[in-house]
Write a structure and sequence with these properties.
Ubiquitin-like (UB roll); TUG-UBL1; about 20% strand; 16 strands; TUG ubiquitin-like domain-containing protein; about 30% helix; alpha+beta
């Protein structure tokens, strides 16, 4: 049964919108903004001072026929939405429940959401192909393996609403009514009559900003190799010349560059797993730091400490605005530049018997390389263990995947100490035996504790040393007592 609602704009103009039980509230917003000449992506709907859920249909909104809705401006900063993508088989085997979950800003388009899930961040490092799937169609009578590749488009079902066209994928989460909370998207695929090359060209026209890195196709073969590997049901495209020759060329180039660098600068060890230093366990039970002679004045706060504390208190009491999108982007770019500037990182691993070994790794080293290096010095190298970052519960993953690089992903940019922890299945006898191999243990050296130079007391130079409080209090009392009249003095005083 058809009905209508009245939408009142911020300038008190009104727009009447017809609705049916199946009309989505986001469509009501768009229709009202269209009649009022306003951009729908900058407004929300309110009813009796409560936000209207734009993702539901009219019959679920609990509004009466002829209800008056207010048009209000929404925040310019996009909010976070928890997006869950339910994968179809066989992609559902990526996760135990076949569902990927990630928090994304509400101004992302549906296409950008799919591309975000393809990157592997939410799929435990496994890259998925959701937007560039091609299927060989051999129904035209051609021999098996020689059919034309046709595009298989993704289809999303969001609370009964189907999105399957490129125009639907251009809508943002906010335009679909999701500005906060969570949303479940059920994914499936549908074979189209478009060839893969035609679909890629159309995608580059609908999403030029998103698909710039993938937009280079001049031939059908280059289009299929520029995109993520299409899902094929034939073997004719599995051996593309561009895919087989490009890695070989890049490998040859890297060897030539690496050879020049090695000849000129770094001779380097023959075995990259060889530690640069092995250290013995401490001989005493008391930590060396506790045996160092420390002056009591080192623990006395100075005037500079008090001033710094006051400055921090003042800064903490001031209201601070949230960073803008530009500032967040600049901060992220600065962090990427900082990590890119790291050429090597020294990692020292402390073993259960308090011996330790140190390695130096490049910026592309992964967690698997660190685990291999540790096993190379273990006496029982077949026993399971894990490496934990200090001060946290973060366990370095034993994987060669690029998502587990020590520098770029674990943010190890300085000298760092990593703790070795045996797995619970390791027997007590193995734990009691020496940890290092005999050949490695012979190379171990005692840890040299550097002498801390004694700094001279700079209180005389600064001229701002705090005088003892008691004499100062007595002098002040005497000066005040001289200025007081006789009648104000306390009894017993002369």
């Amino acid at each position: 049964m058809a009905s209508h609602v009245t939408v009142i704009g911020t300038d008190l103009r009104r727009a009447t919108v017809k609705v049916t039980p199946g009309t989505y509230m986001t469509d009501v917003l768009q229709e009202a903004c269209k009649k009022l000449g306003l951009p729908a992506d900058k407004y929300l709907l309110k009813h009796k001072q409560k936000n209207v859920d734009l993702s539901i249909v009219w019959r679920q909104a609990g509004l009466s026929p002829g209800a008056k809705l207010e048009l209000v401006q929404k925040s310019k900063t996009p909010s976070a939405v928890s997006v869950a993508l339910q994968l179809p088989p066989p992609e559902s085997s990526v996760t135990p429940n076949g569902r990927l979950v990630e928090k994304l800003p509400s101004d992302l388009s549906v296409w950008q959401v799919l591309r975000q899930f393809e990157s592997g961040n939410a799929s435990q490092g496994k890259n998925l192909n959701l937007t560039a799937r091609g299927v060989a169609n051999i129904d035209t009578g051609a021999k098996s393996g020689s059919g034309q590749l046709y595009y298989e488009t993704p289809v999303l079902n969001i609370m009964g609403r189907e999105l399957a066209s490129f125009s639907d994928f251009q809508k943002t989460l906010s335009q679909l009514g999701y500005n906060s909370g969570s949303v479940l998207m059920r994914l499936s695929f549908r074979l189209t009559e478009k060839t893969l090359y035609e679909a890629m060209s159309e995608i580059s026209q609908h999403f030029p900003d998103v698909e710039t890195p993938r937009k280079e196709p001049t031939t059908a073969s280059s289009a299929s190799t520029a995109m993520p590997a299409p899902t094929l049901e034939s073997e004719d495209t599995a051996k593309e010349p561009s895919e087989s020759t490009a890695p070989a060329a890049s490998t040859e180039q890297s060897h030539s560059v690496g050879g020049d660098t090695m000849d000129v600068d770094y001779p380097g060890p023959s075995d990259p797993l060889q530690p640069v230093g092995v250290f013995q366990a401490p001989t005493g039970t008391t930590p060396a730091a506790a045996l160092a002679a420390v002056s009591e004045t080192d623990f006395s706060p100075t005037v500079a400490h008090a001033q710094l504390h006051q400055i921090r208190l003042q800064q903490a009491s001031q209201n601070k605005r949230l960073l803008s999108d530009k500032e967040l982007e600049d901060r992220a770019n600065a962090e990427k530049a900082r990590l890119a500037s790291v050429s090597s990182v020294a990692i020292k691993v402390r073993f259960p018997d308090n011996t330790s070994a140190q390695w130096s790794f490049g910026p592309e080293a992964t967690g698997a390389l660190l685990y291999k290096a540790v096993r190379s010095v273990m006496a029982h190298d077949s026993q399971p263990f894990k490496l934990v970052l200090p001060g946290t519960r973060t366990i370095i993953t034993n994987s060669d995947n690029a998502d587990y690089r020590l520098v770029h992903n674990y943010k190890l940019t300085r000298n760092v100490l990593v703790n070795f922890i045996w797995d619970s299945t390791v027997s007590v006898d193995v734990r009691k035996q020496p940890f290092l191999k005999g050949s490695i243990a012979q190379q171990a050296k005692a840890v040299q504790v550097p002498d801390i130079p004694q700094e001279a007391d700079d209180s005389k130079e600064s001229g701002r040393a705090v005088q003892p409080s008691k004499p100062e209090s007595n002098d002040r009392t005497e000066r005040v007592a001289k200025k007081l009249p006789k009648w104000f003095k306390l009894p017993g005083k002369k």
